[in-house]
Amino acid sequence: MQARLEARGLTKYYAAISAIRNVNLALEPGTILGLLGPNGSGKSTTVSLLTGLREPSAGQILFDGRNIGDHLVEYKARVGYVPEDAHLYTFLSGREQLELIGRLRRLPDGLRTRKIAALLDLFGMTSAADQPISGYSKGMRQKILLVSALLHDPDVLILDEPESGLDLSASLVLRHLIPLLAARGKIVVYSSHVLDYVERLCAVVVVLHRGAVVAEGPVHQLRAMMQRQSSLEEIVAQLVTTVDPAGTAREIADVVRLQT
Amino acid sequence: MSTSASGDSRAFRVVTRLFLRRLIDNDLISPHADRHHSLAVLYALVVSLAVFATFFLSTGYLAAFIQLPGPAALSALADRFLYIAASMTVSALAALMVWDALALEPRDAAILGPLPIAARTLTRAKLAAAVVFGTILTVALNAVPGVLYPLFLTLNIRGTQGATIIRLIAAHAATVTMAGLFGFFGVLAVRGTLRWLAGERAFGRLASLVQSALVVAMITGLLLAPTVRASDVRRWVDGTRAPGSVAPVLWYLAINEMLAGHLVANTRVVLPPRLAFFPFPRRVDEDARTIYHGLTPRFAALAKQGWLSLPVVAGLAIATFFWTNRRFPDRAATALRPTRFYGVVRRAAERLTRGDPEAQAGFFFTLQTLTRSAPHRTIVAVSLAVGLTHAFIALTQTGVHRFESSSMPRAIPAMSVFLLISLLAGFWYAATVPAEPLANWTIRSAWLGNQQSYLSGVKRAGLIALAAVPLLLMLPLNVSLMGTAAAVEHSVVALLFATALLDALFVFVDRFPFACSYVPIQNPKVAWPASLAGVLTLTYGFAALECQALVALPRMVAFCAALSAIAFLVKAIDRDRRCEERPIEFDARPTPATQRLDLAAH
Hints:
The structure holds two protein chains of two kinds.
Chain A: E1 5-14, E2 17-27, E3 32-36, H1 43-51, E4 58-63, E5 66-67, H2 72-76, E6 79-82, H3 94-104, H4 109-122, H5 138-150, E7 156-160, H6 168-183, E8 187-191, H7 195-201, E9 204-209, E10 212-218, H8 219-226, H9 232-240, H10 245-257
Parallel strand pairs in A: 3-8, 3-9, 6-7, 7-8
Antiparallel strand pairs in A: 1-2, 1-4, 4-5, 9-10
Helix pairs in contact in A: 3-4, 3-5
Chain B: H1 2-29, H2 35-63, H3 69-97, H4 106-112, H5 119-155, H6 162-224, H7 230-238, H8 247-266, H9 282-324, H10 340-352, H11 357-372, H12 374-398, H13 411-431, H14 441-446, H15 451-482, H16 484-506, H17 524-550, H18 553-577, H19 593-596
């Protein structure tokens, strides 16, 4: 049986440098996929290809069995995306930014206004909704990004470091929200460095290192593969860490102490 | 103690350099531009314009076989007026371009606040960076013409001594630099005073409006300066005409005349023996010298004000700067709480675009970008200033009185037409500039591919904000010039013209307004003069036709019908072009210079 969202042999080059090589994914409705890896491993490139914002150099992404490149607009209408960097139109207010997104996504007037007001309220943003985004903190911008991604009830939710900057209560809400959305049939791709979150939320993880998949599967399977009862953090560290963390930490502390 | 003082002064130097670099890199140019390339282009543009103006102004002096000192001293008044006005307005414009960076900003607080640097050091560094920036710009603008102009002026005045030329160059350099600093500090003083009087919150609301108004005023002034004749300057100086807003220019002109300008009028003509046969028009020369010397007492009075003005304005700018920047700015922003007026506009716009959310998105995003994004506001302000300059010149030529439809000068309807063309061309250009380059992913990921709907919203916003509103504001003036019936007819015709023009401007636009990356116009040295010639031809051609139509109602009806047909035709072409959805390149880059010049293979 074919998965609803599938990546086949995804490869992306920037000039002559390969960012990812031959990445394969298969996601069913209700799946929460954790995308893990160190900086520069290709997570953000994979995410940008999955959102349709970039085209792969080779390979393809299929949604409902159709190449998204041939039906990009239809596919984008089904995707909600929270990017890693919260770049927004800073001269707009939060509400205006959401109005812009909602209109571009062709949400009818009444529904759009109701959903924006309700979501802003639930994320605790009502009092700041009419202030320009230039005055927002990182967490407030992140909440606007989350509301933007959810506004049109997407089938695929792609979240790149969504917890970044969020306060404790918003983080807790997010931690409850994601399994709930998955239970309602959405595919969630969750890219993060916070392995604790990923371990709690994601049934399946893919570990990327230097642009290639070095491990994939359910967390318990990875544990079995590593033949030890370790945490996800230890598994990932074993797979992708090329430095001795304790040794590097000692060296940093020594450099900090230098006086002359 | 001394260690702390030296640490402070080192921190001051480092932070001043940082602020200065940021003024040039981020605020004047753009965060992602190549600094060296942009600065080189900017400097080349400024210097070449200044050199071109100098040669243009000096043609008469250079071409004269023998230049008479008296007439030269009088005609030089208009030239010096232009140099001083240009220096003052360009420096003021530079200050307006970096308006937000002329005070400590929230990002300064975020980046530099945690460092162990005294707050007063940061404030002093910010001011120092602003002053250095203003001074460098003024000197760069005036360096070449400051030397060339006095040389050209005196080249054919037989009997001019080397010392006189040096004094003329020094006086010219001093006065244009002082005028430039006056313009720069003037903007700083207006900003500081406004922030001091209005308070942080109200300043946040007023600042952009004041900035835009000043940009319009400065560019209008700059464009009108070349139209000032020597006789106008004489009348302003001798008091037969009130100088009004040109008074500051006259102060520095007077300083120039008191320092060295009079040397030209005092030069004794020494003809070489081989030119003894030359019929020297002594009377003309003496009359001109007498007129010039008659102005000297007024120059002395004006120069006193000039000497005083710079310290006063600079003092005010510095005092208000230190007072308003004594604390780091509060990040808490002003709420953009919708007003009742905004509610009315919103409802009207939603009614206009009912059932079409993408058109609404285009409509509101356009209005928000044009009013809140600094580069877009500046482009609109420049377009408005160009249109107003033309209107001012037209009114100066025709006079402000009632004209009959049968004898209407073309310049009268041409005022609104030129203003509309200027504003809509500015709007078209503004649409090619991204509102925020890094934020366009929001549009890219949310946009569902119907460019026509979004574009129709964009055009409707442009038509209302930059055609309907200006026409409404010009209606009282048009009524006083044309009479009520003709003014209303003219407004209807102009609106139809604007509709057709707007569609025509966007018919070949395949990029996403305000969201795609900026690609500069290829070959501007051909495009700009050709566009200007085209605009003037279109304006006066259209005005001539309208003058014919205004004579009789049937003609006017036929004219409106023809215009409507053209508008519908352009719309149909546009609809036809966009019937199939095409992918949009959001991140297009300009062609590298090596490819444009075909150098890649060499």
